[in-house]
UniProtKB/TrEMBL annotation:
Signal peptide: 1-22
Region (Disordered): 25-58
Domain of life: Eukaryota
Lineage: Eukaryota, Metazoa, Chordata, Craniata, Vertebrata
GO CC aspect terms: extracellular space
Keyword Repeat: yes
Biased composition (Basic residues): 25-36
Name of protein: Proline and arginine rich end leucine rich repeat protein
Organism: Seriola lalandi dorsalis
């Protein structure tokens, strides 16, 4: 009996211990998610920089010409049997001047991408008479070029990037066109010994009064046309040859004309001073009384009255000034009381432009009575 009770007690104790063990609290789960560990960053390999292209990518490829019967014709040019002395290399997208054949008299290189003119291509081109280099990107012309072509007559280098007039120009030159560059310097003696030059075009550059000395144009004895329009001049240029026929000074900042500026000009027929800063104060009373003058343009200035002019003048442009009245008696080159039955003695004015002023119709009768050859008046 005692043995059974002991066995029962031992069994009860064993079950009690198991219950205590099974009721041990479990560890609580974390409320936040564990932060993942960052993987170590692997450094990227440096990519080598691409080399710059040898020339701007906006230049289209050169255009090659068709096969030629002339073995010396450059591949990027056109040579035709009908014009054996002409070398046509215009509009070919070329960057450098090719070797010029000895037979060449006329060289056309306009509308390309040429940046520099060197002497090498002209070594055997001693008979070249005409060169057109317009509309390129030329910033330099080697003076040795002109030693190779001593018979050059016409040189066109307008619409380029030149900053000064080329040196070493040949004495044979008759026309020099340098319009629409960036020229702000004329080297001393640039036009010396150029007694054959008849046309000098420096339109639309950056020339100021200090760039034009008294002797700049001294040797240009044959000059007939001088174009200095669209620069930054404040006064009339000095030393202009007296045999000049056409003088163009539009779009500068000129506000004064010396009283005797045009004295000594024997053939001056065309004067253009549009778009300047001329007022009555800066225009002497009879400065334009020149017997050879045919066409006078003074539009877009600050004039308040009509300047006096010679009876031989045929065209007068005074539009867009500050003129409020016009007195035909004062501006008439002849007395209205004189006998003008001989029409050859009448003033020759045919065209008069006065629009853009402070005038209104009708035209004064004394103007009509004086200028009887007038065909057109714009008011």
């Amino acid at each position: 009996m005692k043995a059974g009770a002991g066995l029962f007690s031992a069994l009860a104790l064993f079950l009690l211990m198991g219950a205590v063990i099974t009721q041990r609290p479990r560890p609580k789960k974390p409320t936040r998610r564990p932060v993942p560990t960052k993987k170590p960053s692997v450094p990227k390999l440096a990519v080598p920089a691409q080399p710059e292209p040898q020339e701007p990518t906006d230049f289209p490829p050169p255009i090659l010409g068709p096969p030629s019967v002339f073995p010396d014709c450059p591949r990027e040019c056109l040579c035709t049997p009908d014009y054996p002395n002409s070398l046509n290399c215009e509009n070919r997208n070329i960057r450098a001047i090719p070797v010029i054949p000895p037979r060449t008299h006329y060289l056309y290189l306009q509308n390309n991408y040429i940046s520099e003119v060197t002497a090498e291509p002209f070594i055997n081109a001693t008979d070249v008479r005409w060169i057109n280099l317009a509309n390129n990107r030329i910033h330099r012309i080697d003076k040795k070029v002109f030693e190779k072509i001593p018979a050059l007559l016409y040189l066109y280098v307008h619409r380029n990037h030149l900053k000064e007039v080329p040196s070493g120009l040949p004495a044979s030159l008759e026309q020099l066109r340098l319009a629409k560059n960036r020229i702000s310097k004329i080297p001393a003696g640039a036009f010396s010994k150029m007694g054959n030059l008849t046309l000098l075009d420096l339109y639309h550059n950056q020339l100021s009064d200090s760039d034009l000395g008294k002797n700049t144009f001294k040797d240009l004895k044959s000059l007939m046309q001088l174009n200095l329009a669209h620069n930054v001049l404040k006064k009339m240029p000095d030393g202009v040859p007296s045999g000049l026929i056409q003088l163009f000074l539009d779009r500068n900042r000129i506000d004064d004309i010396p009283k005797d500026y045009f004295r000594g000009f024997t053939h001056l027929a065309f004067v253009r001073l549009n778009y300047n800063q001329l007022s009555d104060k800066g225009v002497p009373k009879a400065v334009f009384n020149i017997s050879s003058l045919l066409d006078l343009q003074l539009a877009h200035n600050q004039l308040a009255s009509v300047p006096l002019f010679n009876g031989h003048l045929e065209h007068l442009h005074l539009n867009h000034n500050s003129i409020e009245s016009i007195n035909g008696t004062l501006i008439c080159p002849y007395s209205l009381q004189a006998d003008l039955s001989d029409h050859s003695l009448l003033p020759r004015l045919r065209y008069l432009r006065l629009d853009g002023n402070h005038l209104s119709p009708p035209i004064p009768l004394d103007v009509i009575m004086c200028f009887r050859h007038l065909h057109s008046i714009v008011i």
